[in-house]
Design goal:
With 350 residues, the protein is of the alpha/beta class. The protein has three domains: 82 residues, Beta Barrel (OB fold (Dihydrolipoamide Acetyltransferase, E2P)), CATH 2.40.50.140; 160 residues, Rossmann fold, CATH 3.40.50.300; 66 residues, Ribonucleotide Reductase Protein R1, domain 1, CATH 1.10.40. The protein is 33% helix and 21% strand. It has a six-stranded mixed β-sheet with strand order 10-9-8-11-13-12, sandwiched between helices. It has a five-stranded mixed β-barrel with strand order 1-2-3-5-4. Strands 6-7 form a two-stranded antiparallel ribbon. It is globular. Bound molecules: guanosine-5'-triphosphate (GTP), magnesium ion and zinc ion. The site of zinc ion has 8 residues, from helix 9.
Length: 350
């Protein structure tokens, strides 16, 4: 693997000074407790040590996919200690709202963010706008991909609708499935540059990545036909190399860009519905299909307005993220623990 193919030449232009290139690597995958690194010598397992962790103040201080890092290779092993992260030229991150706003970096050192939406059920202009803002904030160029163009009769009309709302951003109708527009996307990816694909689950990010690579590098999966949302087929952010030069980062679908409100606020707004919800058979009733749901019963009996019910369900869906946030926090604590165990194992081997 040569550093140039990984995008080093373009990246290093952003550095204020020359850097000894011997121990440079790029973060390809974040695993639990360790990292897959691509280096001149090939693949390495990257680990971090106590000193690194002690100086890290937040999650953003840890290596992220796309980061360039300085490593120290362990003798006789395909392992390397990550000593430091080189300055991020760009990044795309989302801010987690809530009591403690935290930054989550989706990818570092990318030139283009391909914002993928499906022209089927996923299509949503305000979500596109949020992604565009996120990309620009981190110094990346947003490019909008309206995928699944094969599914609708007039993709051009949709394109115009989007371009009227969002100006100054390139928009491409694409069908990752039948190849329409894939060449246009490929042309944007210059040799040595890095791009990331973001968007909800099931929009076809991995299918597009495979089309660009000309092979089935990434697993893809059919969408559930009921809501056209995918099932999170891609579970990790990872780097793939384009044969013509260029670094692709595929990401798992994101749901966290949804609405932010507190459970209490939801309760207040939908007090009337909540009253029925108290009588649902199960405490964790999702009010959409559970047996013995008092909300559904009230809906059928016309005691709850249909539109209001839809809104309530939509909001409850996005509020799952608050639960998810809590889980992420716990997962993060676990990750720290695993890293610390990995470190102990490493120092034990010395
Ligand atoms: N009709 C049509 N289907 C497509 C197209 N692109 C992808 N799909 C289908 O959409 C489904 C989801 O595709 P994926 O590539 O797995 O979606 P993803 O965005 O990577 O999803 P996650 O990994 O879960 O985030 C698959 O069944 C694909 O075959 C397209 O251009 N047209
Ligand atoms: Mg995928
Ligand atoms: Zn219910």
């Amino acid at each position: 693997m040569d550093l140039k193919a990984l995008g080093w030449d373009l990246y290093k232009k952003s550095l204020p000074e020359n850097i000894d290139e011997e121990n440079i690597a790029r973060v390809a995958v974040e695993n639990r407790g360790s990292y897959l690194l691509y280096a001149e010598s090939g693949e390495l397992e990257g680990i971090i040590q106590g000193k690194f962790m002690r100086s890290a103040e937040s999650e953003a201080d840890y290596p992220k996919v796309g980061d360039w890092v300085i490593t120290e290779k362990l003798r006789g092993e395909d392992k390397a200690v990550i000593k430091s992260i080189l300055p991020r030229k760009t990044k795309i991150s989302r801010k987690r709202a809530g009591e403690d706003v935290a930054e989550q970096i989706i990818a570092a050192n990318v030139d283009i963010v391909f914002i993928v939406q499906g022209l089927d059920g996923d299509f949503n202009i305000s979500r596109l706008e949020r992604y565009v803002a996120m990309s620009k904030e981190g110094g990346c160029e947003p490019v909008i991909i309206l995928n699944k163009a094969d599914l609708i009769a007039d993709a051009q009309a949709k394109l115009e609708e989007v371009s009227q709302k969002i100006s100054g951003v390139r928009i491409f109708p694409v069908s990752a499935q039948n190849g329409q527009g894939v060449e246009d996307v490929r042309k944007l990816i210059q040799e040595g540059s890095s791009v990331v694909f973001v968007g909800s689950s099931g929009v076809g990010k991995s299918t597009l990545v495979n089309a660009l690579l000309g092979m089935e590098a990434q697993k893809t999966q059919e969408v559930r036909f009921d809501d056209s949302r995918g099932r999170h087929t891609t579970t990790k952010r990872e780097i793939l190399l384009l044969p013509s030069g260029g670094v692709l980062i595929d990401t798992p679908g994101m749901r966290e860009l949804g609405l932010w409100a507190s459970q209490e606020a939801l309760g207040e707004t939908f007090d009337d519905i909540k009253i029925f919800a108290q009588h649902c058979k199960f405490n964790d009733c999702d009010h959409t299909q559970s047996a013995g749901c008092a909300v559904l019963k009230a809906l059928q009996e016309g005691k709850i307005d249909h539109k209001r019910y839809d809104n309530f369900i939509k909001l409850s869906g996005s509020l799952d993220h608050f639960q998810a946030k809590k889980e992420r926090k716990e997962a993060w604590a676990l990750k720290r623990k695993q890293i610390s165990i990995a470190r102990k194992q490493y120092s034990g081997k010395k």
